[in-house]
Amino acid sequence: MASPHVAGVAALVWSHFPTKTAQQIRQALESTAQDLGSSGRDDIFGHGLVRADLAYNSLKGTGGSSAYSKKFMLINPQTGKALDVDGAKCNDGTNIHLWDVNGFDAQIFHYHFDSKAIVNVKCNKAIDISRFQCHDGANIWLWKRNGSDAQKLSFYNDMTIRSAGCENKAIDIYKAASDNETNILSWSKHGNANQKWQIKYI
Asked: Is the CB of residue 51 less than 8 Å from the CB of residue 33?
């Protein structure tokens, strides 16, 4: 996507959704771009051909499959490790933890724009704040999609992922550890490295 064209399309799309953040507009443009060249983002074509129509539909929550982002992994830049569904199990209550990046199904998600849910592609279940507890240390697990505030998560420019229902709570690596199987929790947003997540599209 050439920068001047993307800037123009971003302005066009944003004019229809003035309450969206710059990060939400960018994510919609990147996740709906028509892939060119090598699969996924590459150095020649970037994310691909910018598609105003698909970005608009994804933000509006219409258009079938375009209501979802492209598939991605969530990687913590400090540890280089990914959010991972424990054992790739699809049971309600399966723990979300930190694990070495491997690109397996347990680490592949997409974002459902309309419900604001981060959905594991294999299980079609959402990342969920356990029992919608808004205190620091609430566990993050996988749960059937239900549209509740416990599953509404938004991406921010500071690389945090925050709950729409629990004010000022972010997805956090327990005690900033870097070991495999370290729990992922909801914690008051402080913006330190253990709350930062990079989206790596696949």
From this structure: yes
